[in-house]
Write a structure and sequence with these properties.
The protein is an alpha+beta fold. The chain is built from 12 helices and 13 strands. Strand 7 and strand 8 form a beta hairpin. The longest helix has 19 residues.
Length: about 375
Amino acid sequence: MKKKFNEAEKENLKNSLKNEWNKKIGNLDNFNKVWKIIEDSARYVFNSSHAYAMAGDSLYAAYFKAHHPYDFYEVAINHYQDKGDKNKMNDLIEEARKFYGLKLGSWRFGVDNSRVTIDRAKKLIYPSLSSIKGIGDSVASELYKVAQGISSEASFVEVLSALKTETSVNRAVRSSLIGIDYFHRYGAPMELYRQAEVFDRLFSRATVKAADLAPYGLGLEDITPLCEKVTAKQAKGFNPVRLIEFLLHKTPKAKTTFLDRVKLQYDILGYVSLKNDAVNNGVFVVMSIVGNKRKRISLYSLKNGKEQQCNAWESSIQQLKEGDIIKVRSFKRDYKRVPKDIDGKKVYVKTDEKEYWLKGWSKCGQDTNTQIKK
């Protein structure tokens, strides 16, 4: 491609484009405006083969995103998975969710979650486990393989045993899997965290002392049927899986609230897609805070799943951070102001457009679950 045009060549190019514009559009109403943009941009852009190729790629991507979004996102997300770019994967998933109404399907133990697939009829993205930070490509394959060898009647403790002895899954990865409800069929997250804690404490033990059983309100005599030898001080010769199951059966289960799930989803995945009509009006998750003195805030309603954009001055939200759950008492709708240069000074001028400002709000603390109607 030619890199520079002299005045005569530029005029010829303009006339040629004008003729083609008139043929295609049927009038020249906006031609001069578009030509002015092209002419002005020539000061800082360059017509190299690289720029031409990149522009072509951008246009191809924009076309497929607009006309074939399901195919585009499925291919693009898997492409970045292959490259190991999890940030780009998550950005694309969030973009598809926000602008094309796609919802995120669930990860499930026993299902092959090694690749991203999209169900067009249900508008669901079935994600890859690799999209979660800290989980490598091999983990999904290991989990799928282990699941195929586990009985449908197996307990979660048996699953934990298989993960420890047959996979490279560490505690951090296991914690994330529990938090995203990957082991849904074995129970809710907080109960599975409880079981995992007991498992970690006792699975590798060859002996158990009375002090180990005290937190469960039990003594060595209570586990005698499970052991080959029990003395006044300790017990040994037991099947750790059966012992752990016995202890868990003797202690109360942990409850998982809706807001427990919200916090886990945000902490692990960086977004929230859950909603509950029983939540009181005005309860939001703070998804993002950007800007300097004037902050632009994105809030996610836990009642209806809709996002609310609003503004706030930095001084009024110093205690607010991303991931907080808040109760909003009021928004103020005011005319949007935009910066304008007047006599060399930057002045904010009112426009006809209105925007929301965050006014009355408070954090939902330890009593957060009271925000759900009984």
